[in-house]
Amino acid sequence: MTHTRLVLANLGRNKLRTAFTGGAITLAVLLVCILLTMPAAMDRLLEDIASDVRISVHNKAGLVYSMPGSFTRKVRNIDGVAAAVGMVWYGGAYEDGGKVTFPNFAIESEHVGAVYPDYPIEKEELADFVRYRDGAIVGAQTMDKYGWKIGDRVTLKSTIWPVDLDFRIVGRIDNPQSPHFWFSRTYLDEAMKAKLGQAAGFVGTIWVRAADPSRVNSIMLAVEEMSRNSDAEAVAETEKSFFQNFFGSLEGFIRIILLVTGLVTLCIIFIAANTASMNVRERSGEIAVLKAIGFARRFIFGSLLGEVVVLSTVAGAVGVGLALGFAGLLQSLAGGDGSLGPLGGFIITAPVLVQGLFLSLFIGMLAGVVPSFGAARKPVALALHEIF
Amino acid sequence: MADGSNALIDVRNVSRHYVRNVDEVHALDDVSLEVPAACFVALMGPSGSGKSTLLNLISGIDRPSEGEVIVAGQPLSTLDEDELATWRARHVGLIFQFFNLIPVLSARENVALPLLLTDLDKAERRRRAETALRVVGLEERFDHFPRTLSGGEQQRVAIARAIVTDPDLIVADEPTGDLDARNAEAILDLLRALKNEFGKTIVMVTHDSRALRYVDEAHHLDKGVLLTGEEAERAAAALLAAAGAHPMPPARSDGSS
C-alpha cells in the first residue's frame, strides 16, 4: 500500500466517469494545442513566402485598381532597386464553370528570375519562359492538383479579359505550397492587339527587389513620392506586410477561435471541478474516517488534489500526443497533396507541447483545489457527524 | 499517567456545548470519568445522551467547551489540529458502526492505510497488515475487496485497521450496530480478546445490552450527564429489562467497583 496506489485506486473507482472526464480534458488540450500552432504557422508561412527585400507596389485605392504600365520602368530606375516586374491579373479558369481555382498573372517574363531569385525554378526553365511567348511557369501545388507536367499544353478562359489563351508549361515553381500560374505579359498584349487593336497598357501590381534590406524603406518612400498627385497614386509595402494584410482577416478569425478555446477550457475546468466535487461528496464517509484515524488535512488535500491532477495531466499528455499525431498527419498529407498547402505548417513545437501539458496541469489544479480544500478543512467531528 | 493515577483516560469536568441553528445544545455537562489502562468500558445511554460526544472527546476527534481530557498523560487541549491527527494516528484505533472501508482497496490495503503515516517501509507495512488481519481471523481474506466480504468480515477488517498501529486506546462507536446477533457477539468477543490478550484499553459506545457481558465497566449517560450511584444502577437494570436479559453488574464485571 502506497500513496500512489491510493490515488490510482481512487481514480479507478468509477472508470466510466474517469474516462469521460479524462476524455473531455484530452479533447480540450488537443484543441488548444492545434489552435496554438496557428499563429506560429501563419508566421512560418509568411517567413517561407515573404522575402525581406521584396516590395509590393499597387494602386493606393486598392489591388483591383491599375497603374500605368510605364510606372514599372520608372520604379526600376529608383536608386537601390535591383529588379522590378509588373504583373496583371488574368483571372483564367481552367475548370468548366468558369471558376478561378488558382491565381494566374500575366508577368514580364524577362524580369521574373531577377525579382524571384529565391524561388525554386530551374535556370533552363526560366530561359524557356523568356524564349516561348506562350510559355507558362506553374507552382507545384497547381501542377500536382491537375496532374500537369512540363511540356503539357493547357487553355485558360479569362473571366475578365476578352481573350482565352493556350499555354505551354515550360517551368515549375518547385514549392508544394505555391499555386501560381505565370505567363508572358507580351503574350497577353499581342492577343489583345489582335482582338481589340491595342494592348492593355497598364499594370496591376509591381514587385520590386531591393539590392539589400537597408534600401527597402527608402525605395518604398521613393515609389510613393514618385506617384504622388498622379491619377494613380501608388502605395508600397514589404512582401511580408502585403501577405499579412492578406491574412489579416484570418488572424481575426484565429483570435476568435482562441477566445472560444479559452471558454471551452473554462467549461472543461468546471466539468472537472464538478466531477471532483461529486467524488468528494460520494466519499465523504471514507474521508471522514481517514481524518479520524489520523490523516492530517494536508494529506487529505494532497490526496484528493493529486487524483484530479494525475487524471488531468495524463489526459493532457494524451491530448498533446494526439495533437502531435494530428499535425504529423497534416504534414504527411500536405507533402503528398499540394492542395493542403499551408496545413503542413501546423507543427507542434516544444513550446506548444509544454503549454499543452501546463494547461492540463492548470485544469487539474483549478478543478481540484476547491473541493479538496473543502474536504480537508472540514472539522473531523463535523464530518463524522454528517455520515453517522 | 496523569497526576500519578493509573488511569489511561482522565476526563475532568468536561462540557461540550454547540450551537445548532439558533439553539445552544448542551451535549455534555460537567462529565468526569477515569478509565484505567487495559480496561474494556462501555458507554451506554439513549440516543442524544452524549455518549458519542464523550467518545469523540476521548479520542481527540472533538474538543471540549470546558474541562480537560488527558489520555496516556497527554492533555489533548495542548495539541493543534494537525498534532491531534498525528496523536490519533499513533495512540488511538477507531472503529465505527459503518465500516467505511475503501472499496477499491483490498482488505490488506485497507488495513495498511494507517501505516502510511509511519516511517515503516512497504514490506513492513504489508507484514503488519497481514498480522492484524490474522489477529481478527481473516488470514484467508487478505486480497478480498470489501464488496466480497460479509458485514461481520468488513467490521473485522475495520478492527484490524484500528489495531494495526498497535495503539494504546481503541474507541468503538456502535461497532455491532450494523451486524446481526451472531456477528455482533463475534465482534464483542474479538474486542474482549484484544483487551485480554494484548492489554488494549477499549472504550465502546453501544446500545447493545449484550455488551454488558463482555465489558469491565459500563457507564450510563442521560441528557449529557454521566449517571452515578442508584441512577446508574436503575439505568442498567432498565436496559437489561428492556433487552429481556438477566441482571448484570453495572460497573466492573470482576466486582471490584
Percent range for helical residues of chain A? 55-70%
* Share of helix of chain B, binned: 25-40%
What's the number of domains of chain B? 1
Mean pLDDT of chain B: 86
Cα distance spanning the termini of chain A: 27 Å
CATH architectural grouping of chain B: 3-Layer(aba) Sandwich
Total domain modules of chain A: 2
Spell the H/E element sequence of chain A: HHEEHEEEHHEHEEEHEEHEHHHHH
CATH superfamily of chain B: P-loop containing nucleotide triphosphate hydrolases
Number of DSSP strand runs of chain B: 10
Number of helices of chain B: 7
- Quaternary structure of the protein: heterodimer
What would you say this structure looks like, in words?
The complex is a heterodimer of chains A (about 400) and B (about 260). Chain A has helices at about 5-10, 15-50, 70-75, 110-115, 125-130, 140-145, 185-195, 215-225, 240-280, 285-290, 295-335, 350-375, 380-385; strands spanning about 55-60, 65-70, 80-90, 90-95, 105, 135-140, 155-160, 165-175, 180-185, 200-205, 205-210, 235-240. With about 400 residues, chain A is α+β, with helices and mostly antiparallel strands. In chain A, the strands form two sheets. A ten-stranded mixed sheet of chain A has the order 4-7-8-6-9-5-3-11-1-12. In chain A, strand 7 (about 155-160) and strand 8 (about 165-175) form a beta hairpin. Chain A starts with a helix and ends with a helix. The model of chain A is unreliable at about 335-340 (pLDDT under 50). Chain B contains seven helices and ten strands. Chain B has helices spanning about 50-60, 80-90, 105-110, 120-135, 150-165, 180-200, 230-245, and strands spanning about 5-20, 25-35, 40-45, 65-70, 75, 90-95, 170-175, 200-205, 215-220, 225. Chains A and B meet through helix 1, helix 10, helix 11 and helix 13 of A and helix 2, strand 6, helix 3 and helix 4 of B.
